[in-house]
Design goal:
By secondary structure, this protein is mainly β. The protein has four helices and 23 strands. The protein has a single domain, classed as Beta Barrel (Porin), CATH 2.40.160.10. Strands 3-4-5-6-7-8-9-10-11-14-15-16-19-21-22-23 form a 16-stranded antiparallel barrel. Strands 12-13-20 form a three-stranded antiparallel β-sheet, with no helix packed on it.
Length: 447
């Protein structure tokens, strides 16, 4: 059913755009230079201004010196298959990603396996996604993205919205604006998996989002109301809604120097329902190492984020705290943070915009005809997560441990802008239980 739905969406997008363009043959259309400048929200936003000003390839049927038909389509490749009308008012992008992972457990000490279960080597397709997104009439945006990994079809992004030069509004199923790393696409994160504190981020839910760029497009804001949903996008949990917001941007951004800072919050209504928190040691093919479950009337999650870029060297970190209003005596507080440093050995610079980080393009692609090697990045990250419950909350259900510390060392090879190979060495320490060492390998391609 999900596959049929996706095919219908793709066919409908083409039909709607073709139909609406043909219906406007009598309208006065603006010139290409009138295209609205884009704003960014998340690392997968379409930069319509850049796309609409790309020159046609030499093989294009368009001829210089002749008036260009504003209702005509052009199809081109720019890190993905893209189509747009000649005036740039209607745009469509098709694409996807494949992430293939291997996990090898090297060592486990203490009572780790006795507490969490066997640690098994394995392989999986971590993500296998297809999407279609674009704009209609220049100001109506849409996106449909499905994940086919794990033997089932799951809708990830399903929304439509209205965009303007500086501000936009979306409705549907989308990411909540809750932090730097969670808003960075999985295609562009430095490590194989996101850090431990992203456990507190709601990630995707259904709702309404207001977002945009302010202060000379240097800062990005997002605030929305969301209903918590399951994998079928059904939000029928009683009283489970979130109000989430974020404000972040560059305090400094010039001469390959960036100082990024931001803050986020999320109010989550609980209505006395149980909330469960379970964490792996940044390895998807791993049992949960720590867990806590508590009844909550409400939760308030706050976060601080920062990043500094100095040419090929960068550092990034976030801190998050979750405070709960419990119906039982005592209000638990969970917390976590991470920090990491990254260095491009080949001199590349992380791609930064007001809302976060995007695709890294090597200076010279591997085997590009001029002895290109691609880009190599060395990174190290420390992250910690504390789910211990203090006070008199007797209803808490605790896992084998409540505090997990992770140290990850990564070597990434950016073969091309769309092909990346990642190597992660992960040392995990469960307080009072034991330690583990694992190796992760990922081959990733986007299209």
């Amino acid at each position: 059913m999900g596959r049929i739905t996706f095919n219908i969406l793709m066919a409908a997008a083409w039909t709607i755009i073709a139909g609406t363009v043909n219906a406007q043959t009598t309208e006065q259309l603006p010139s290409r230079t009138a295209t609205t400048q884009p704003f960014f929200f998340g690392s997968e936003a379409i930069n319509s201004a850049v796309e609409s000003t790309l020159s046609l390839s030499p093989t294009s049927t368009s001829r210089q010196g002749e008036e260009e038909d504003p209702n005509g389509f052009r199809v081109f490749w720019n890190n993905g298959l893209r189509m747009e009308t000649n005036d740039g008012r209607f745009q469509v992008q098709f694409g996807g990603r494949i992430m293939y992972d291997w996990t090898f457990w090297v060592h486990a000490s203490g009572w780790v396996e006795d507490s969490v279960g066997p640690l098994l080597n394995g392989t999986e397709f971590r993500r296998a996604r297809l999407f279609v997104q674009g704009y209609l009439y220049e100001w109506v945006e849409f996106k449909a993205q499905y994940d086919f990994a794990g033997g089932k079809i799951v809708a990830k992004d399903l929304y439509l919205g209205i965009r303007h030069a500086k501000h936009g509004f979306r409705v549907g199923h989308m990411k909540e604006p809750s932090g730097l790393e969670i808003l960075t696409s999985s295609k562009y994160i430095t490590f194989v998996e996101r850090s431990l504190p992203t456990l507190f981020d709601a990630e995707r839910n259904s709702g309404f989002l207001l977002h945009g760029n302010v202060i000379d497009d240097r800062f990005n804001y997002g605030i929305g109301v969301f209903r918590e949903t399951n994998d079928k996008l059904i939000g029928d949990l009683p009283g489970r809604y979130n109000v989430t917001g974020r404000f972040a941007g560059a305090l400094l951004n010039r001469d390959d120097r960036v100082f990024h800072a931001g803050a986020s919050f999320s109010f989550q209504n609980g209505d006395g329902a149980w909330r469960s928190f379970k964490a792996r040691p940044e390895i998807h093919l791993s049992p949960r190492f720590i867990s806590s479950a508590i009844p909550t009337n409400a939760a308030i999650i706050v976060g601080l984020e920062t990043a500094v870029l100095a040419g090929p060297f960068s550092v990034q970190g976030e801190w998050k705290m979750a405070s709960f209003d419990s119906p039982y005596p005592g209000d638990p507080v969970f917390s976590g943070w991470y920090g990491y440093a990254s260095w491009f050995l080949t001199g590349e610079i992380r791609n930064y915009s007001a809302s976060g980080f995007g695709r890294t393009s090597p200076k010279r692609n591997f085997l590009d005809g001029s002895s290109g090697t691609g880009a190599f990045e060395l990174a190290a990250r420390y992250s910690t997560l504390n789910l211990s419950v203090d006070g008199e909350v007797r209803a808490a259900i605790l896992g084998p441990g409540t505090q997990l510390d992770n140290l990850t060392v990564a070597l990434n090879w950016y073969v091309h802008p769309l092909v990346v190979v990642k190597h992660n060495f992960i040392h995990a320490d469960v307080e009072g239980i034991g330690k583990t060492l694992a190796f992760l390998w990922r081959a990733q391609v986007e299209f």
